[in-house]
Structure formats: C-alpha cells, structure tokens
Amino acid sequence: MSIATAVDGYLRHVSVERGLAANTVAAYRRDLGVYTDWLGADSAEGAPRPITDLRDVTRAHISAFVQYLGLRPESPLTAASIARGLSTVRGFHRFLQGEGLVETDVAHDTKPPKLALRLPKAISIDQVSALLAATDGDDVQRLRDKALLELLYATGARVSEVVNLNVDDVLVEEFDSVRLTGKGDKQRIVPVGSFARAAVSDYLVRARPMLSARGRSTPALFLGLRGQRVSRQNAWLIIRAAAERAGLTVPVSPHTLRHSFATHLLAGGADVRVVQELLGHSSVATTQIYTLVTVDTLRDMYTLAHPRAR
C-alpha cells in the first residue's frame, strides 16, 4: 500500500468511524502532508530518507521529524504546534499497526516538547458588563448582537457552537436552557441566565423575523444582515466592534467570553466538575487550568492587601 493510500484510509477512519469534526480532519490532513513530504525528501541529517514504504519508518525517523519541525528554516513551529503535529503522526502510526499494515507502532514512545503553561485570558466582570452594554440599542443589528454576546457569556459556549444553533435548539417551554452541539457532535444542555433569556427573546420577537425576510428560509438562530447564518468570522467582528465601543484596551475574542465564563463561575464557588460539564470538556484536567487563574487572582489580591505579604 502506498503512503498516500494509507493516509487517505486514516483520514476516512477518523472522519467516519470516530466522527471527528471536518476542521479537525482538515488539520490532520495538513499535518500528515508535512510528515509524508518530509519522509519523501532526501535526508540532510538524522535517519536516512527518502522513505517510500511505511514499514521502513523507525523510531529514529519520528524523533528526527519532531526535531525538523522545530528547526525547519522556512517556518519553525512552536512547541504547541509540534505537539499537535506529533499527536497526528502518533495517531496515524497507531492506526497502521491496528490495521496490520506495519508490525510495530514506531511513534508510540516519542515524547512531544514540554509546553509552557499558558493560562486562559479572561476579563473582569466589569469589563464583561461594559462589553455587553456596548450592544445596547433597539435597531435590528444591536438586538442581534446583544443576544449573541449575552448567550456566549451566559453559556460559555464555543463560538462555533453558538453560530451553529438553530431556533429549535432554544428550549422555549420556559426558555431556561439551550442545546449545544460540541466537538464530536456531542450534545449538552446548558442553562441560560435571565439577562441572556431576555436578550434572546427580544431578538427572536423583534429582530430575527426582519432579518429572515431578507434571505432564504433557514433554521439558524443568529442571522446576518442579508438573512444568512452568522459565521464565526462575523461573530468575531461583532465582538471586536463591541469591545471598541466599550473602550476595552485588552484583546477580546469569542473565546475570551468562554474563558471569562469559566473563571467567574469558579471564582464564585462553582464546582470544577460542574464547570467541566457546562464547557463540554471531555476531561476535568482541561477545566482545572481555570482553577490556576483564580488562584493567581487570589494571590495577587493577597499580595496587595496583606500588610506583611511583601
């Protein structure tokens, strides 16, 4: 089997059998393209190449490839990008062994570079309030923007989850929650606070019918000015414009509201496993990074306030 055929088989596997999102599969395709191009190139140093048969790949090749990613002259990658590329390659070789295409998984023991701990960037409650207040208004666009931002902060949803919402995903019996579809098409029900409920209700009654009349019929909850579903890029621009009107000097993105949602809940005493469920994290370890943010905040407050802290 050719290397290209093996790659296609793996991508079908992660797309169909594992149900990974299209964006994730596209990222795997790019990573494996870099890897297979490197395998097919003449070797300047490290393990001998070119490789035309995956059975000839050794652990030395995997280690040399990781080193190449960090040193390649055209665009050396960060530790995080190298770790992601290695993760793709390890998954590919695990698949090859599982399918009986190679005898051993030569990538299994290769370790990624150590990642620097990057804490999520959250903004304060006052800054969130200023951001949301910057969407006040009675025109169609402001009503939509208010509903979009209030819902992002109320649920901690990823921007893709919110822009992919349909009207039916708003559970309107009492309208106290929404149905979000996260990574791997996993659904979760997330409660919605009173401010977001009021904003979304106003939008549904006063703005969405007018926006819907401008385009083709669509079940999308949030519509653009031409009646189409709001895109992730549109949402980013909406938030950036609101941040500018609010006079915020810190970078603000859709993910900033997700980080702020988690940080503010934990600071208010919420259990980390509850926040994990609300965020749709598969592992509590992913959520626990937010506890470091709140601990850092407490430490800063202590240092400033305690007479013998410095």
Automatic annotation (TrEMBL):
Principal place of residence: cytoplasm
Location of the Tyr recombinase domain: 118-303
Keywords recorded for this protein, A-Z: Cell cycle, Cell division, Chromosome partition, Cytoplasm, DNA integration, DNA recombination, DNA-binding
Domain Core-binding (CB): residue ranges: 1-97
Pfam name, any one: Phage_integrase
InterPro entries: CB, DNA_brk_join_enz, Integrase-like_cat_sf, Integrase_catalytic, Integrase_recombinase_N, Integrase_SAM-like_N, Recomb_XerD, Tyrosine_recombinase_XerC/XerD
Active-site residues from the entry: 158, 183, 255, 258, 281, 290
Compartment annotation: Cytoplasm
Coiled-coil annotated residue ranges, if any: none
Gene Ontology terms: biological process: cell division; chromosome segregation; DNA transposition
Function recorded in the entry: Site-specific tyrosine recombinase, which acts by catalyzing the cutting and rejoining of the recombining DNA molecules. The XerC-XerD complex is essential to convert dimers of the bacterial chromosome into monomers to permit their segregation at cell division. It also contributes to the segregational stability of plasmids.
Complex and partners: Forms a cyclic heterotetrameric complex composed of two molecules of XerC and two molecules of XerD.
Family (UniProt): Belongs to the 'phage' integrase family. XerC subfamily.
Protein name, as recorded: Tyrosine recombinase XerC
Gene responsible for this protein: xerC
